[in-house]
Specification:
single chain, mainly alpha, de novo design (two linked rop proteins), elongated
């Protein structure tokens, strides 16, 4: 036991009144912390739109779909099927049979009818309700993007009717008005949405 004997000898040689020698060892070097993996992006809190927004938007889409279906029927049968004037500034046949009603060879009534159906689903109360699913924010973005696309088509058709053809189709104008109304409802309904926890009771 050489180490114990040496320690006892040092203790015996220490002057009286001094306590035992305390050896302070330097702290062991700490291991560097590994970076924590980034947490997956979580969706923000679900928001609730005003009750009037999905109801009004759904009603607008139903009316727009009915109008577009009527224009589609007239396109595949005869322009005379439209109860509209054929003389003067208001002339549905001149508009619906023009080259501007077939951009890229596709009748505008076909994508218009599909747009009304898709937007009707996106603005329905069952889809426009709060949800914590990861895909839910993309539904809202798609809803806004669809309404903006509709406004873009309205500008194109108004340019064709007023600038190029100098004629107006009253049924097309009806779809235009409904498209603008739907855009406003979606914008204001989205802007006035509140978190689900802050929704006042009975609203």
């Amino acid at each position: 036991m050489p180490r114990i004997t040496r320690a006892r000898d040092e203790e015996a040689l220490r002057p009286v009144g001094q306590g035992p020698v305390v050896t302070v060892r330097p702290p062991a070097p700490s291991k560097p912390r590994e970076p924590e993996p980034p947490e997956p992006d979580e969706p923000g809190p679900a928001v609730v739109p005003p009750r009037w927004a999905p109801l009004s938007a759904t009603a607008i889409c139903v009316l727009a779909f009915a109008d577009s279906a009527y224009l589609t029927y007239a396109h595949f049968t005869s322009a005379s099927a439209l109860a509209c004037s054929t003389k003067g500034f208001v002339d549905c046949a001149a508009v619906t049979t023009s080259a501007y009603s077939h951009p890229l060879g596709v009748p505008v009534v076909i994508p218009g009818l599909i747009w009304c159906a898709v937007m009707g689903v996106l603005v329905s109360p069952w889809v426009w309700r709060p949800s914590n699913h990861p895909w839910w924010p993309w539904v809202g973005r798609l809803r806004i993007a669809g309404s903006v696309a509709g406004i873009g088509m309205v500008f194109y058709l108004l340019w064709a009717e007023l600038i190029k053809l100098h004629h107006l189709c009253e049924y097309c104008t009806g779809v235009h008005v409904l498209t603008v109304a739907l855009f406003l409802v979606i914008v204001f309904g989205t802007a006035l949405s509140v978190p689900a926890e802050a929704e006042p009771a009975g609203t």
